[in-house]
Design goal:
With 417 residues, the protein is an alpha/beta fold. It has 3 domains: 6-152, Up-down Bundle (Four Helix Bundle (Hemerythrin (Met), subunit A)); 168-332 and 381-415, 3-Layer(aba) Sandwich (Rossmann fold), CATH 3.40.50.10470; 337-370, no CATH class. It is 40% helix and 17% strand. It has 13 helices and 18 strands. The longest helix has 41 residues, at 134-174. It binds 5-S-methyl-1-O-phosphono-5-thio-D-ribulose. Pathway: Amino-acid biosynthesis; L-methionine biosynthesis via salvage pathway; L-methionine from S-methyl-5-thio-alpha-D-ribose 1-phosphate: step 1/6.
Length: 417
């Protein structure tokens, strides 16, 4: 079974989110019944990844409204807030606005959250103008949130297909049936999306066609989405893979015998190089500059130096045409705790945490371990901007965008015409 970070059922209304802070050691789903709980899940990074946070925000509003409707119909006495929202479309509209305003403050960089909120607001206004009752408007909002979940899965499969075909075509020019090895960064798989994944979707596609030799994932310091989540997904889905530290990428690219080849005599000598670095995106500007997890920029530089493809894979909605270049993208700065502490989950036994501190009764009292000295100054930007010049192609569900020969930037607006 594939991993899923979002479990939603329409009837009875239920939303459960996999607490990713506990992965890979514990699989715990937490129930979300209100907008505030959805906000908390996103803010506390129990759910993360650009597509997933947009969907969770929308579904938390949907489920909150569905449960209010249920309360209005089935429960006595009625909650006064529920009574007013369900009996007055005007009150419902005010509630939706307030909820969306709150939800969009949970994470600033990924565009998906803002687009999801914009979509839900447009629907609310349109149906309100048309004179629909609150319960009818709620049904439309639920339809839209469910569609976002379903569309994202479909889009990811198409991203995987386009990206897989693109890379296969590129390597076939060099050598027929060449096997492909790639490096990926952060987490872009089932856990960061509604399923299948974006950059990880391309890796999945190559694997399903029998064309993936090996996938390397970086740890992705400081928050370790790579070692906690991507390594876990690759292992779970039995995709041949190896975990490396972020600082090992250039060394891997310059190695003539990468580790995956040492035990693989069947592989021809033409396969001994990494073909591409594939990453996701949180926001892409009109010219193709891409905001993605911190560390992406340096990967693009090393890809260029080593003459390999640097691919950005993202749903089309990640292209923000209102933004001219990467300079206009707000970069989220996160707590210094992510840098100074190595966090673990208290699981005893082989493969679990081994450096926990226990009190006299054997209870674990420290869950996080500080590495640098107290008082050290720390900077923790969560994302960086990769200039379009360093990006070979942007793969979306609509197809692959490449730059014109000799041109440094993408013309994504033009490509749409
Ligand atoms: C699939 S979104 C693109 C990712 O690479 C990405 O940057 C991401 O997962 C965001 O990380 P986050 O853990 O939400 O801060």
């Amino acid at each position: 079974m594939t991993l899923s970070s979002i479990l939603y059922t329409r009837a009875p209304p239920s939303l459960k989110i996999l607490n990713q802070l506990l992965l890979p050691h514990q699989t715990t789903y937490e129930s979300v019944t209100t907008v505030q709980q959805g906000y908390d899940q996103i803010k506390q990074m129990k759910v993360r990844g650009a597509p997933a946070i947009g969907i969770v925000a929308s579904l938390s509003l949907a489920v909150d409204l569905q449960l209010k409707l249920h309360n209005f119909t089935d429960i006595n006495p009625k909650d006064p807030e529920v009574l007013s929202i369900i009996s007055s479309p005007q009150e419902l509209k005010a509630f939706v606005r307030k909820s969306l305003d709150h939800l969009i403050t949970s994470r600033p960089t990924a565009v998906n959250l803002f687009l999801a909120s914009k979509k839900l607001w447009e629907i609310t206004c349109k149906e309100f103008e048309e004179g629909l009752e609150s319960r009818e408007i709620i049904e439309k909002l639920v339809d839209a949130a469910v569609k976002m979940l379903e569309d994202d899965l479909e889009d990811n499969k198409n991203i995987g297909k386009h990206g897989g075909e693109f890379l296969i075509k590129k390597v076939e020019d060099e050598h027929e049936n060449k096997m492909i090895s790639v490096i990926t960064h952060c987490n872009t798989g089932s856990l960061a999306t509604s399923g299948y994944g974006t950059a990880l979707g391309i890796i999945r596609d190559l694997h399903s066609r029998g064309r993936l030799l090996h996938a390397y994932c970086t740890e992705t310091r400081p928050y370790n989405q790579g070692s906690r989540l991507t390594a876990y997904e690759l292992l779970h889905d039995k995709i041949p893979s190896t975990l490396i530290c972020d600082s090992m990428v250039s060394s891997l690219l310059s190695s003539s015998t990468p580790p995956h080849l040492k035990s693989s005599l069947a592989v021809s000598a033409t396969s001994n190089k990494i073909t591409a670095i594939i990453v996701g995106a949180d926001r892409i500007s009109r010219n193709g500059d891409t905001a993605n997890k911190i560390g992406t920029y340096q990967l693009a530089i090393t890809a260029k130096y080593h003459g390999i493809f640097f691919i950005v894979a993202a749903p089309f909605m990640s292209i923000d045409l209102t933004i001219k270049s990467g300079k206009d993208i707000i970069i989220e700065e996160r707590s210094e705790d992510e840098v100074v502490f190595v966090s673990g989950v208290p699981v005893i036994g082989e493969g679990g945490r081994y450096n926990e501190v226990k009190d006299e009764s054997g209870k674990i009292i420290i869950d996080k371990v500080r590495v640098p000295p107290r008082g050290v100054k720390v900077w923790n930007p969560s994302f960086d901007i990769t200039p379009a010049e360093l990006i070979s192609a942007i793969v979306t569900e609509k197809g692959v965008f490449e730059k014109s020969e000799g041109v440094k930037e993408f013309n994504l607006e033009k490509s749409l015409e």
